[in-house]
Amino acid sequence: MKTSNILGHDGIYKISDWGLSKLKIGESVTLSGATPQYAAPEQISQEFGKADERTDIYQLGIVFYELVTGDIPFKGEMSELYTSILNTLPTPPSDINPSASMVENIIMKCLSKNKEDRYSCMGELIEELEKSYKLGSSDSKTMKIP
């Protein structure tokens, strides 16, 4: 999942190319969702377990981060990029866009290195987003998107 795979027309959004790419490494290990900047830790290192629904949540967290900050959280040459994904916490979105504080905790939970610390399923993430929206809509704050 990455922003370029989200297609929109007349207010309707669809995801294209979902989970279609695989990169073979060695004889038996594959890296699913091979766009490196959007890879979850478990797609890079077996230390983090196998990819599952929480991997999609991580990748969606990258998309959310990009939407509210205008940039992806990790960049660099391949080895630097993978090291950052595995070991570095992203800059909090509100450090880049102060109005992102409304959803910062949600984004950072999506981007947790360990799958067990992320939302357990998309339903849980959606519920949290709905709660955040209801809280945010009761005051006059609006998020500025870069």
TrEMBL record:
Pfam families: Pkinase
Domain Protein kinase: 1-130
PROSITE patterns per the UniProt record, alphabetical: PROTEIN_KINASE_DOM
InterPro entries cross-referenced by the UniProt entry: Kinase-like_dom_sf, Prot_kinase_dom
Keywords, ordered alphabetically: ATP-binding, Kinase, Nucleotide-binding, Serine/threonine-protein kinase, Transferase
PANTHER family: RIBOSOMAL PROTEIN S6 KINASE (PTHR24351)
Name of the molecule in the record: Protein kinase domain-containing protein
